[in-house]
Backbone:
């Protein structure tokens, strides 16, 4: 059973207003993963505690000079097929919501699970993300 859209819409908007791309189907997820470069997938959720910290953490991290080539999201409890497919790329990790996976050329290189999110504030989540960006997403282009 999925959550009604009017329940999830405000939580979707917290990420999409940042330019985060929604992946609503399994085909959307496959297309995003099967591109070169780095891709961060945020498994968003309606959970107020952990997801309520993760979304602001993502917003802070995306201000970093170094960031993934693409940033996308699936919504657990709403976009069931897309969420299941995204989790399929998070090999070696049990399903959790929220969670954040960083892929490079279609392969998972870094993961932040719910258990690592729920006891952190947005600043700590952003710090973990920006460290991963620095490690896996290359250097910023300077002009």
Residues:
């Amino acid at each position: 059973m999925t959550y009604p859209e009017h329940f999830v819409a405000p939580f979707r908007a917290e990420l999409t207003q940042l330019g985060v791309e929604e992946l609503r189907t399994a085909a959307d997820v496959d297309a995003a993963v099967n591109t070169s470069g780095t891709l961060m997938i945020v498994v968003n959720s309606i959970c107020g505690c952990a997801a309520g910290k993760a979304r602001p953490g993502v917003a802070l991290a995306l201000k970093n000079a170094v960031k993934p080539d693409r940033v996308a999201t699936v919504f657990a409890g709403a976009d069931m097929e897309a969420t299941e497919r995204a989790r399929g790329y998070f090999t070696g990790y049990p399903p959790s919501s929220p969670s954040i996976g960083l892929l490079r050329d279609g392969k998972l290189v870094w993961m932040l699970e719910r258990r690592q999110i729920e006891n952190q504030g947005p600043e700590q989540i952003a710090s973990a993300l920006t460290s991963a960006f620095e490690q896996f997403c290359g250097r910023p282009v300077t002009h």
Summary: DSSP finds six helices and five strands in the chain. The first strand starts at residue 21 and ends at 22.
